[in-house]
Amino acid sequence: MLIDPGYVAAGALTGFMVGLTGVGGGALMTPVLLLFFGIAPTTAIATDLWFAAITKVVAARIHQRHGRVDWQVVKRLWTGSLPVAGLTVLLVARSDRNLHADWLAQAVGLVVMVTAVGLLLAPWLASVARGRRLGHPQEFKAMQPTFTVLAGALLGLCVALTSVGAGTLGTVMLLYLYPLRMTPHKLVATDIVHAIPLAVIAGLGYLLAGMTDGRMLVSLLAGSLPAVVMGSLLAGRLNGRPIQLLLGVVLLATGLKTVL
By Cβ atoms counted within 10 A, which residue in 31, 112, 114, 117 is the most buried? Predict the structure, then answer.
């Protein structure tokens, strides 16, 4: 059967989360593929990158229509993330595939745990950053461009290696770097738009290496595309923070399970 109901359900859940909160494209989907479907790490990461890219294109169109994207911040992130992702995935594609698989699942679990903690602590981090922004406004604004590029570089490395981080880590980093500028809805939209070319560049290396599962991708997208539209339309009306807290707890448990 071309369409697998299990993958469709996983895609729908993840797509809804992406549209509503900007989180879940990698942090949720990759562990689900590893733990619940038993997919090989390289295949899970390769397929998830394309799943995230295509799903987020749909979400981005809706968010952009409502003027929620901060393009200056997006460009700063791209300056760091895209070159690092391209170089990293090139090295991964040329490495020994079996050796890569030995530690890859552990890397996914570790990054998922870090992103989960960041998601749970996001309001506290934003409060700390807001205090620094108001207490030392000139110094804080002066360091924003450089630190945003560096944040993008770290995201590029994480996404290229594990497919995880563009949504969750990106959200936390932007909250810290732009505590006054990033409203919740602008944060979601900016993070989603940044992730699209990042996932494409990272996904190209895996695709050329023959690691992407096309049939699985079709099933995942069959669930995610309608769901991401629904989540994106609700993003302007609902408070996504309770869902982020629940997602953070789930991701922390999932990351622990992946590592152990």
Answer: 112
Q: CA-to-CA distance for 79 and 240, rounded, in angstroms?
A: 28
For residues 65-78, give the mean pLDDT.
89
Whether residue 148 contacts residue 99, with contact meaning beta carbons closer than 8 Å, is answered with no
Separation of alpha carbons 3 and 50, rounded Å: 17
For 91-104, what is each residue's pLDDT tens digit?
876 765 554 555 77
Residues 192 and 63: beta-carbon distance below 8 Å: yes
* CA–centroid distance for 158 within its chain: 10
> What percentage of the chain has pLDDT greater than the value 90?
35
Q: Are 171 and 23 in contact (CB under 8 A)?
A: yes
DSSP-derived secondary structure letter, 137: H
Distance CA 248, CA 214 (A): 29
Reading the block at residue 146, the tokens are 């450089």
Closest to 209 in 3D by CA, of 80, 42, 67: 42
d(CA 14, CA 231): 10
Q: What tokens does 5 get?
A: 């109901």
pLDDT at 99: 47
